[in-house]
Every structure is written in C-alpha cells, then in structure tokens.
Design brief:
about 190 residues
Length: about 190
C-alpha cells in the first residue's frame, strides 16, 4: 500500500518553467478564440463522442420506423420510402459536420504552428548552446597543461553555430539536384545531415 503522506518529488525550476510556458501557450490560444470558435469547438467535440453515433442511429431508425409504421397502419407517411427527406437531412447534416470539423481543424492548426515555431526556435537555441559548450571544452583542453595540444578540425567545425539560412539553402539545393537527377517523384527526398 502506497504511503499517502509522501510529498510529490520536487521538479527542477527549468522543467517547471517549461511546463508553465507550454500551459500558457495553450491558455492564450483558448483565450484568444472568438466565442464563435469556442462554440464550434464544443459542437465538434460533441460530434466526436461515441454517444453521438448512437443518438444519430436512434433518430434515423426512429424516422424510418415511424414512416413505415404509419404506412402499415394506413396513414399517409411524412417521408415515404425511399425517404427523400431523410436523405436530404443526412446530406445537410453531413455538410455542417464537415464545415465544423474544418473550422475546428483550422483553429487547432494555429496552435500547432505556434508549437512548431517554438520547437524550431528552441532547436536553434539548443544548437547554439551546444556549439558554445564545444568551444569552451576546446578552450579548456588547449589551456590545460596536462593534455597534449592538438588540432581537432571536427571539434573546431562543431564549435561554430550553424547558420539557419545556409542550412535551408543547402536543403533546397539538395532537393533541386535530386529532382533534376531523378525527375519528379512522389517520394520525399531526405537531405544528408548538414
């Protein structure tokens, strides 16, 4: 049996700050949504629940059953077979569902773009920090009298932070060359590490 008096482990400050930043990004995204966007999001969430399929099935079966029962009892059915009103209603409902889903997806794509931008900026920053660490290690190695001084060209190259523009240009160039050599293909080409 687990001890309930044990306090949860304390997270390092940098982890707390990262979690809070991501939470703030999501909160701002939700707060910046218009009332219409929030309504559309709620409706899409409702449509995505398994219960919606059950309710929709009950409505369709009930509609068909009531119209068949009315015909069997000698009454004029509201929507006789092949149920054209039901078909129209289902088509209209499908159209609305597609529009709701697209609107929700568009709203969620905005959040994904913010996360992508954040990830890209953090990756570039991380690469710059790594280059600085390599620079400091190489400087420490050169200054340490106990270590034989030598030239490490690979470490010198890695100590220079990559220029994002030149990396992007290299990727474009490799893609262009690959397209000229093999012709247009549907398969994406993967550039070698830069």
């Amino acid at each position: 049996m687990a001890d309930t008096n044990v306090s949860p482990p304390i997270r390092p400050t940098h982890i707390e700050e990262t979690v809070q930043s991501i939470t703030r990004l999501h909160a701002e995204h939700t707060q910046n949504a218009t009332p219409l966007q929030r309504t559309v999001d709620r409706m899409t969430a409702l449509l995505g629940r398994p219960g919606f399929i059950g309710v929709l099935t009950v409505i369709v079966v009930g509609w068909i059953g009531l119209n068949l029962l009315a015909a069997a009892l000698g009454y004029r059915p509201i929507d006789p077979p092949p149920f054209p009103w039901l078909g129209g209603a289902v088509s209209l409902l499908s159209l609305y569902m597609v529009v709701l889903i697209l609107a929700t997806q568009r709203h969620e794509d905005q959040l994904a773009q913010h996360r992508e931008q954040l990830s890209l900026e953090l990756l570039v920053l991380s690469e710059q920090k790594t280059a600085k660490v390599i620079q400091l290690l190489e400087e420490s190695r050169r200054d340490n009298p106990l270590i034989r001084n030598r030239v490490d060209q690979e470490a010198d190259a890695m100590a220079e932070p990559a220029d994002p523009s030149s990396v992007l240009d290299a990727i474009k160039e490799i893609h262009a060359e690959a397209g000229q050599v093999s012709g247009p293909t549907d398969e994406p080409t993967v550039p070698p590490s830069v």
